[in-house]
Design goal:
It is a single chain. The protein is α/β, with parallel strands linked by helices. The protein folds into 3 domains: 2-46 and 101-174 and 268-337, FAD/NAD(P)-binding domain (3-Layer(bba) Sandwich); 72-97 and 176-264, D-Amino Acid Oxidase, Chain A, domain 2, CATH 3.30.9.10; 346-394, no CATH class. 32% of the residues lie in helices and 29% in strands. It has helices spanning 15-26, 55-58, 100-113, 162-166, 235-245, 248-251, 295-315, 320-348, 353-363, 373-383, 385-388; strands spanning 2-11, 31-34, 49-50, 66-69, 72-76, 82-86, 96-98, 117-119, 122-130, 133-141, 144-155, 178-187, 195-199, 208-215, 218-226, 254-264, 273-274, 277-279. The strands form 3 sheets. Strands 1, 2, 8, 9, 10, 11, 17 and 18 form an 8-stranded mixed beta sheet that branches. A hairpin with a 2-residue loop joins strand 14 (208-215) and strand 15. Helix 1 packs parallel to helix 7, helix 7 packs antiparallel against helix 8 (320-348) and helix 9 (353-363) crosses helix 10. The protein is globular and about 65 Å long.
Length: 395
């Protein structure tokens, strides 16, 4: 069996994987990134909305992959009263609406230009261990088995990471911490290119309906529903179709493609490193539990991961104690927000349509200095104090 050796091996060429690979290479490591598909970024499994302020932090230059730059978000209550929020306060999915395949390819190009080798049609089939340390993976490249040995191995293989599980990290999720999602790209619709729209309540149990505009008359129309609140993941399509049928501006539209998949809405992972191995991005459950947005967090964590991995290689020590610098780094950057948003998600999933209506009604016309769970609840308390009793922990 062929054996290949590298300093850093990244399994998965999504945004978090490419970012990890790029920054490891920039820090002097020899890096190999493998991707099981024949094309990076395809098929797309994403709403394609993302925030933008974080891009300079990780060295991403806006490019042709941007469809629309939006002004903000509109949040609709079950009674369809609308709350407008500016782009800076709207969360991880508002700022740009993008072509995700083009975005992912550009990040892979950036990684390659930094010196990363990229192998397509190469899938990990198992973990290699020596003396308890991860030392690479068993793999197949175009169907041929081989071993890839690395001083640091990175799991960036997405939702419910197999590589992470093989390495001994707990990557399986409970049903309450998963959303099943379905999205149509639709033309001839009445979306507004200035806003990403979100519809809350029983129209999407435990989640929401979204509209992300791609161009005039063209939009991604999708839904996420909590798996524990539906009989079958296929129910997502029924809920979305019912929502579309009730809204003439979308019922008249034409569907031109459809994508589906799962997303984690869990609390942050308690462990993201072990000897010779770390996990990053969606694989590490870095998705915001409230919005389902994970691109920004994955890329920010990827920069930290790549830098730490290269340092471990240079120092000849990839123990979990050394790699823990990555764990501390990403947690300092956004763990608290992820955890608070998970707590908020847990509570929001239990609210009735009546309560959602009161929250949006109370916020109408209120000027908040900064949009946060705390400030929202203070504003709601003025008009509906009975609602905020359910959220005392957040106050």
């Amino acid at each position: 069996m062929e054996t290949v050796r590298t300093d850093v091996l990244v399994v998965g060429a999504g945004p978090a994987g490419s970012m990890t690979a790029k920054w490891a290479a920039k820090a002097g490591a020899n890096v190999l990134m493998i991707e099981k598909r024949q094309e990076i970024g395809s098929p797309v499994r994403c709403g394609e909305g993302m925030s933008k302020d974080w891009l300079p932090e990780v060295g991403i230059v806006p490019g042709k992959w941007i469809n629309v730059e939006v002004e903000g978000a509109r949040i609709y209550s079950p009674s369809e009263k609308c709350l407008e929020i500016n782009e800076k306060d709207a969360g991880n999915e508002v700022g740009y609406v993008v072509e995700r395949d083009g975005f992912d390819k550009q990040l892979a190009i950036d990684a390659a230009n930094a010196g990363v080798d990229i192998w397509l049609k190469t899938s990990a089939t198992g973990i290699l261990r020596e003396n308890g340390h991860v030392v690479g993976v068993k793999a197949k490249r175009f169907g041929e088995p081989l071993e890839i040995r690395a001083k640091v191995t990175v799991g960036a293989d997405g939702f419910e990471s197999q590589v992470g599980r093989w390495a001994g990290l707990p990557t399986n999720l409970q049903l309450r911490d998963m959303d099943t999602c379905l999205q149509y790209r639709m033309t001839n619709v009445d979306s507004d290119v200035r806003y990403c729209d979100f519809y809350l309540g029983t129209c999407a149990p435990g989640g929401y309906v979204w509209i992300f505009p791609k161009a005039d008359g063209l939009a991604n129309v999708g839904i996420g529903v909590q798996v524990s609140k539906v009989k079958s993941p296929a129910d997502a399509k029924s809920y979305l179709d019912r929502w579309i049928d009730k809204h003439p501006g979308y019922a008249k539209g034409k569907k031109i493609d459809m994508v589906g998949g799962g997303v984690s809405i869990s609390a942050p992972m308690k462990q993201t490193v072990t000897d010779g191995f770390l996990i990053v991005g969606d694989a590490a459950r870095m998705i915001d539990p409230l919005t389902g947005g994970g691109i920004a967090n994955g890329c920010i964590a990827g920069k930290i991961a790549g830098t730490v991995a290269a340092k471990a290689v240079a120092n000849g020590d990839a123990s979990k104690e050394v790699l823990a610098e990555y764990d501390r780094g990403w947690r300092a950057r956004f763990e608290e927000k992820l955890y608070r948003n998970w707590l908020a998600k847990e509570k929001l999933c239990s609210l009735s349509d009546e309560t959602f209506n009161k929250v949006v009604d109370a916020l109408e016309g209120v000027k908040l200095e900064k949009l946060s769970v705390h400030n929202i609840l203070k504003a709601v308390h003025v008009k509906y104090p009975e609602v905020t009793r359910e959220f005392e922990a957040f106050l």
